[in-house]
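Q: My labmate handed me this sequence with no annotations at all. I'd like to see what the chain might look like in three dimensions before we decide whether it's worth expressing. Could you predict it?
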Amino acid sequence: MGWWCVPDALASLPRVPLALHPTPLHPLDRLRRHLGGPEKVPRLLIKRDDLNGVALGGNKLRKLEYLLGDALAQNADTLITAGAAQSNHCRQTAGVGAMTGMETHLCLRGPAPETHTGNLILDDWLGAILHFTDPGTDVSAAMEPLAAALAARGRRPYRIPIGGSNAVGSVGYVTAAQELALQCLEADHIVVATGSGGTQAGLEVGVRRAGLAAKIIGIGVAEPDTTSWNADVANLANAVAARLADPGFSLTPADIECPMDWMGPHYAAPTPACDAAIRLLARTEGVFLDPVYSGKAFAALLDLVRQARFSPRETVVFWHTGGSPALFATGH
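A: Here is what I predict for the chain of 332 residues:
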């Protein structure tokens, strides 16, 4: 079953338009010249999902359009999600809650800090109710007793997984791939950060159904839930395809590229390569990345260019997933 069947399946899914689409696709010509010019460096483009218009933007908004649609279809009046203290997903969920009038609860990893910085300031301004946890607590599991307590008070809570990365939310990046196909059908590679897996999984489905030849390189920036991101992304992509009633779609871990070489010692750990990548893009193109996701993915892109992974005749799209508020929590 091909892409021509998917729009009908997409149209049947509940969705609430939230973000500004299409997001811009910009050339990175000054950076390309800095790295060696067209004779040595592929054409570089950046897909600006950091500019999609709600609560300082980011990739989770595409997922939240479908997650919120599902929540409203279930008559929910309260959103619950979880993540790290500086979670971009939590900040965007808080923004969606504010703009739709839904009470929003965030289960955040670790104890409450003495001072709020970065995304935590924005979470508070957006009216989210913050629930900090004891060290070692599984914040995903922490949503369950919170949901039960809210239900006991008469609320109708809807739980959103970390990163919005399930078969419901990841559909947002199937439509994103269709959007990219209308902007740049000749894309040969897409480089994107992979944290909770949903963005890459949706793109894996979307590029194949949109007729794009682009190979996706998901740069792992977090520890996977199981043995590898390759397995997690393949499983989630297959679940997305099943949601779109495409029984002929099937990926295996061997179909997924998700190297972990640029994560550093652990999730959110600063790395010199990430810092250098953030500075280079800012100083050549005036674009800010974040230190947890997009900065590490861009450091990977720079290394791959230097390693001649790409031909100068190819087109490489870097998918900017947002996250710049975390820059104001790094201390430098």
